[in-house]
Amino acid sequence: MNQLAQECTINWVHKALEKNIDLGFEGSLESVTLLGDAINLTEMLNNLIDNAILYTQEGGHYGQRQ
Length: 66
What we know:
Blueprint: H1 2-18, H2 38-54
Helix pairs in contact: 1-2
């Protein structure tokens, strides 16, 4: 799951940078394995990241505590 999530995040960095959003990835130190369809998991992660970028104000830090 870490690898899949990291790959999805990397694909959205350019879109985040267009809005001056700091998008990063902090994976788990432990290996996480899921039984599931990689295509559907990728689509789910892409939707989550897309929404985070879409609904975060320019220059925002989505999900970070201040």
